[in-house]
Amino acid sequence: MHLGLNFERALVYALHVHGGHVRKGTRVPYFSHLMAVAATVIENGGTEEEAIAALLHDAVEDQGGLPRLADIRNRFGPAVATIVEACSDSLDSAAGEPREPWLTRKRRYLKALPEKSQPILRVTVADKLHNARSTVTPGILGRTSGSASAAGRPNKPSLTTPRSAASCARCIPRRSRRNSATP
After folding, report:
1. Domains contained in the chain, CATH given
2. Distance (Å, rounded) from C-alpha 64 to C-alpha 17?
3. CA neighbours closer than 13 Å in the CB half-sphere of residue 162
4. What is the pTM of this model?
5. Predicted local confidence at residue 63, as pLDDT
C-alpha cells in the first residue's frame, strides 16, 4: 500500500486536534496512541483510508462532535468520515454538550459491532488492541493492569482488556484477519 498526501495531511490534522493531550494517568503524548492504531491497521491489510480513519478515530468523540465530523468529511472524504463516526461512541463532544453515561455509550457501541463493516472493525479492533496492550502490559506507559480504563470511572467495567479486544476480534470473519495480500 502507498501512503500518500492525504495520509500526511491526516497526521498533521490529528496532531493539531490532539496536540498537547496525554494518555490518561501518564505523560505520554496521546498522538502515540493514534499512530499505534494506524500502524496496526496498516500492518493488518488496511487501506490508506482506513489508516487515516485510525489516526482520526477519537477526534469526533473527544474533540468536537458533529462539527468535527463534518470537517473530517470535508477534508478526507465520506469513506473516512463513515469509519470515524462508527468508531465514536458519542457525537456530543462539542463544547458544553452533555454526554450519555459512559456505560450506556459503551454497551450500545459493543452491541452494534457485529453489524459493522470490515473497515470499521479493522480500526475498532486496532484501537481496542492498543488500549489493551497499554493498560495490561507491565511497564508500558507506567501503569498497572486496568488503570487507564478505570481512571475516573469507579465501579465501571473496562472495555480495553484483552477479553474485550478478543470480543471485538470475534466480529471479524476469520479469513479477513489475514493480510489482504495473502491469498
Report:
1. 5-176 (1.10.3210.10)
2. 9
3. 4
4. 0.73
5. 79
